[in-house]
Write a structure and sequence with these properties.
The protein is of the alpha+beta class. 34% of the residues lie in helices and 19% in strands. It has 3 domains: 198 residues, Sandwich (Immunoglobulin-like); 148 residues, Orthogonal Bundle (Neutral Protease, domain 2), CATH 1.10.390; 137 residues, Peptidase M1, leukotriene A4 hydrolase/aminopeptidase C-terminal domain (Serine Threonine Protein Phosphatase 5, Tetratricopeptide repeat). The structure holds ligand BES and zinc ion. It comes from Sordaria macrospora.
Length: 666
């Protein structure tokens, strides 16, 4: 179904490295950071922080990326009654927010986030209300103010019903014509709300600090998938269209709201799982996933505690999906590059599944503490995969790859850059601009360092405690610290007192640059480095057998080592490398991209068209952004031409980021 040369391959971890257009420095705020219990209002929190005792430079509000007054009102339930209109490429209908007053009649208005949404009318408790969409400011959008003239008693719930339609500036949706799908049978659409794009679907409290249950009532002429449990008996025929219902009874933050619709077929892949994708891709997707889904779930449940969401399904999207995977509850959304015909690339699924605990149950309260989602998820992903694939050497091999990606990201930003911190100030910052490998790998290294400090047996008891304590809540780094200290203050851990006292939390949270480097078990990586060493000699003759028994990830580690040579390979060497190891015609996007970076560094002009072709086949930002930056350095004209040619193919978020990277943003 998906077309555009479905790519195979792509093994995990390295995310796109930072954007050179990101601000290189920003004024530091002097707000102090002290722990605030999660039930505190953000205004109290604000004061707590401001007068606290430590010296972090975080924004003095709990979430600087929302304009909503969620300290005064909190969304408890959301009903989305939306029609998917493929003709006008928009969602239209109503969204009902049930908001609980947090104060005793002190707040006379509800402020919601919005971004390029057309609001037609708003009712408050079923009566027309006074409301206004205020002017847009970047990066947080246009707040919608709704008057609540009488206010509401603390604990009272008011209903806000908003009639709306998304616009063509919506950043959360991509619409594909039938011609852009592989079986050409139907149009297709999907959403991507993380980090702050839910507000471009409908006005809401678009902060990970607020969690709501959901009812989805979605009308479409084609099959619908959403981040809730399908309510099958209630699917209703409405002439050409059908009403699809889903429920999400576990409270979730707005960024996990997700929808997709098109010619979608489904097949079972495990006891609690199915895979959904285009009919043409169904068999291969089923084959890729069916052996591992149950194993992943069982391994994760052993490490944390039983899966709480009911089903765990995967929707394999068209190649323009801008991420490797997105942990939308019930349905992980995934790039088709993981369907590689060799089961080598499904660690992305272990990662997204792990988010069912880290991120989806226990959530960072703002994008400043994003490492709590991604660092913990990298840790759980590596634990899950090590438990299935044979232990520590595998865990360390993956960690070595992550360390390399972290080194590269920090080198590119500069080691003093704000975005190299574990906790990143987001005041005035769009989370998409701050996104990089850093929270993933620096976060992973922090969690792993705590594991090594207290010992695996003790840490394994902390894991379910932490995820149990914070289930259905959101927290910041200081609340994490408090939870860790609280757990290990129990008498049975008294012998760990000195070790725990030695943790320099402030430095871990707020230092720029690399964290302390651990000792890795390099047994699986050594062969890769040895081969790279041979390539330093100019008279080395490569042979396919050098790598024929290796995993894709081992070849990647080798290619990364070559990329790091002080001197680039000569054009002849680079071409020999591509030919001998089958990299030029590889179906694995990850390997192909790594090879092209080497070729571009060698100024092998014969490879540039291959780069341009790859940029027309995949829309995953992890590949697209670095490849465009590389091509832009060696052949700007081709880079711009390639971007213009594929502009409509890319997801709006990817399009926007590449425009910034190439310096062609409006
Ligand atoms: N939640 C992320 C994707 C994301 C992050 C989307 C921030 C928007 C904003 C997802 O879990 C993720 O990390 N995906 C990775 C997978 C990899 C680390 C295995 C990706 O897309 O490459
Ligand atoms: Zn993730």
């Amino acid at each position: 179904m998906w077309g555009r040369g479905l790519l195979r391959g792509a093994k995990f971890a390295q995310l796109s490295s930072p954007s050179p257009s990101s601000p290189s420095s920003r004024p530091l705020l002097s707000a102090a950071a002290s722990a605030a219990p999660s039930n505190l209002l953000s205004s109290q929190y604000q004061r707590g922080r401001w007068f606290g005792s430590s010296t972090a430079n975080m924004a003095p509000v709990r979430d600087p990326n929302t304009l909503s007054n969620y300290d005064a009102w909190r969304t408890r339930h959301t009903t989305a009654n939306l029609k998917i209109d493929f003709t006008d490429k928009c969602l239209r209908g109503s969204v009902i927010l049930e908001l609980e007053s947090q104060t005793d009649k002190a707040s006379k208005e509800i402020i919601l986030d919005s971004s390029y949404v057309a609001v037609n009318s708003i009712k408050l408790n079923s009566a027309p209300s006074t409301w206004e969409t205020k002017a847009r400011t970047e990066p947080n959008g246009s707040p919608v103010h709704i008057a609540v003239p009488e206010g509401a008693a603390k604990g009272e719930v008011v209903k806000v019903e908003i009639q709306l339609a998304t616009t063509d500036k919506c950043t959360a949706l991509q619409w594909l014509t039938p011609a852009q799908t592989s079986n050409k049978a139907a149009p297709f659409m999907f959403s991507q709300c993380q980090a702050i794009h839910a507000r471009s679907l409908f006005p809401c409290q678009d902060t990970p600090d607020v969690k709501s249950t959901y009812d989805f009532n979605i009308t479409s002429p084609y099959v619908v998938v959403a981040s809730g449990v399908p309510v099958p008996d209630e699917t209703k025929e409405l002439g050409e269209e059908k009403l699809y219902k889903f429920q999400q009874k576990v409270p979730i933050p707005s960024y996990l709201f997700a929808l997709s619709s098109g010619d979608i077929a489904s097949a079972p892949v495990g006891k609690r799982s199915c895979v959904c994708t285009g009919p043409n891709e169904l068999k291969e997707s089923q084959w890729e996933l069916e052996g591992d889904m149950d194993k992943f779930l069982e391994a994760a449940e052993k490490i944390v505690f039983p899966y709480r969401w009911g089903e765990y399904n995967v929707l394999v999207l068209p190649p323009s999906f801008p991420y490797g995977g997105m942990e939308n509850p019930i349905f992980t959304f995934a790039t088709p590059t993981i369907i590689s015909g060799d089961k080598q690339n499904i660690d992305v699924i272990a990662h997204e599944l792990a988010h069912s605990w880290s991120g989806n149950l226990v959530t960072s309260c703002s994008w400043e503490h994003f490492w709590l989602n991604e660092g913990w998820t990298m840790y759980l992903e590596r634990r899950i995969l090590a438990s299935i694939h044979g232990g520590d050497a595998h865990f360390d091999f993956s960690a070595i790859r992550g360390w390399k990606a972290l080194e590269e990201a920090i080198k590119e930003y500069g080691e003093d850059h704000e975005f190299t911190k574990l906790c990143i100030s987001h005041k005035g910052i769009d989370p998409d601009d701050a996104f990089s490998t850093v929270p993933y790998e620096k976060g992973f290294h922090f969690v792993w360092s705590l594991d090594r400090l207290v010992g695996r047996e003790n840490f394994d008891k902390f894991i379910p405690y932490y995820f149990g304590k914070w289930s259905n809540k959101s927290l910041d780094s200081y609340e994490f610290k408090d939870t860790f200290l609280e757990f290990f203050s129990a008498p049975e851990y008294s012998d760990l007192k000195d070790k725990i006292g030695s943790i320099d939390w402030e430095s871990r949270f707020h230092s720029t640059g690399l964290p302390p480097k651990p000792e890795f078990d390099t047994s699986l990586a050594d062969v890769c480095y040895e081969l790279a060493e041979k390539w330093k000699g100019k008279d080395f003759t490569p042979s396919p057998s050098d790598v024929s028994s290796w995993t894709g990830n081992q070849i990647l580690v080798f290619l990364n080592a070559v990329q790091d040579f002080e001197q680039p390979l000569t054009v002849e060497q680079s071409q020999a490398l591509g030919k001998a190891y089958g990299l030029i015609e590889s179906k694995n996007a990850e390997l192909k991209a790594a090879y092209f970076h080497i070729a571009m560094r060698s100024k092998d002009t014969s490879a540039y068209q291959g780069v341009a072709d790859l940029l027309g086949d995949v829309g995953r930002m992890k590949f697209v952004r670095p490849l465009f930056r590389g091509l832009n350095k060696v052949d700007r004209e081709l880079a711009i031409k390639t971007f213009e040619k594929n502009r409509e193919f890319y997801h709006p978020i990817c399009r926007q980021m590449v425009e910034k990277d190439l310096g062609v943003a409006a």
